[in-house]
Amino acid sequence: MFGARVTLFRLFGFAVRADLSWLIVVALVVASLATGVFPHMVPGLSPGLYWTMGAAGTVVFFLCIVAHEFAHAMVARRFGIPMRGITLFVFGGVAEMDDEPPNARAELLMSAAGPATSVLLGILFFLAYGAGAALHASRVVTSVLLYIAGINIVLAVFNLIPAFPLDGGRVLRSILWWRTGNLRRATHRASQAGSILGFLLIVAGIFSAFTGNLITGIWWFLIGMFVRNAALASYQQLVVRQTLEGEPVSRFMKPDPITVPRWISIEELVLQYVYKYHFSLYPVVDGDRLTGCVTTKNIRDVPREEWERQTVGSIAEPCSETTTIAPQTEVIDALKRMSRTKQSRLIVVQDGKPVGILTLKDLLHFVSVKMELDEAA
């Protein structure tokens, strides 16, 4: 879901990060408020003042999104659900969970916490707007307060649509989970609702674009694509987790991994290994002992004329926790590590020796076959 991210701040032990795509929506929201919303609400002000109002409204709006996601995260912590943090991205924000909720009640309370927080914020900002109006405060201030009050209510209402992965879809899943006792079936139905909602938003976006509202149409189309893809991905992630839960890495690794002797030249490494196997990471060995790892990046850092003279051992680096894993480790933990480090291959090491390779491709292929067999049964 996410690309490059930067950490903005930490609060209550949670890291708040921003995906680089978030910068796009920040600029669009500021421009929209400064050139459309606030000039309509308060005509007759200077352009500079409108842009100041737009910037202030955007900052407060995203702080409200952070508060919405923090509500999810705090309830999740209450039920012992591991949280990686909160990420702001092009379509808003998300509290990132490592595991599914332990039961339907936890899912319900965690899902409802976000919209409830948005409604509460909407009420508070509306009361602040009312107090400001009664005290004859500046129209600049009261207009921003009124906008923030309204946008929080809109955020709550949109999130309560019963379509996964929106909060309303999670509420729907919790109810179906409680009634059926089957998390997978409940997730499938809630995800279907999310897929339908995404399709309708895509259709609405196309219709809007062809009727003259091009920018609005593009936004609806993109949001629809996101909702639809996220709904399908959420169900697939659950299936993967349930299929692989409790299984050790040793069951899925490929034994007898391709290893590179530390004494061969870089030239031999490129000709006999890189061009033959097309991997970007190779375990380096001395006999049968793992001594390090070499990547295509290590090779690129060496001038071409040095390839014949330098050995692999001279450019190999120590293998880190991001590239190695023990055979008894649960494969779910391996998947989390791959996701966190963007690695698609892990070297399986036992007693200092490379005994296998675990690849994301093989894991996904196994899950795909397992799903086909389950559907045929």
Explained architecture:
The model has no long low-confidence stretch (mean pLDDT 87). The protein has 13 helices and eleven strands. By secondary structure, it is an alpha/beta fold. It folds into two domains: 5-244, no CATH class; 249-376, CBS-domain, CATH 3.10.580.10. It has helices at 21-41, 47-78, 104-134, 139-159, 167-180, 183-210, 214-244, 249-252, 266-277, 296-300, 312-315, 331-341, 360-376, and strands at 5-11, 14-19, 83-89, 92-97, 254-255, 260-261, 281-286, 289-295, 324-325, 345-350, 353-359.
Strand order of the largest sheet: 1-2-3-4
Pick out the low-confidence regions. none
From the alpha-carbon coordinates, what is the Rg to the nearest angstrom?
Answer: 26 Å
Anisotropy-based shape:
globular
Tell me the span between the first and last alpha carbons: 32 Å
How many DSSP-defined strands? 11
**How many discrete structural domains?**
2
Secondary structure layout plus pairing:
Layout: E1 5-11, E2 14-19, H1 21-41, H2 47-78, E3 83-89, E4 92-97, H3 104-134, H4 139-159, H5 167-180, H6 183-210, H7 214-244, H8 249-252, E5 254-255, E6 260-261, H9 266-277, E7 281-286, E8 289-295, H10 296-300, H11 312-315, E9 324-325, H12 331-341, E10 345-350, E11 353-359, H13 360-376
Parallel strand pairs: 2-3, 6-7, 9-10
Antiparallel strand pairs: 1-2, 3-4, 5-11, 7-8, 10-11
Helix pairs in contact: 1-2, 2-3, 2-4, 3-4, 3-5, 5-6, 6-7, 7-13
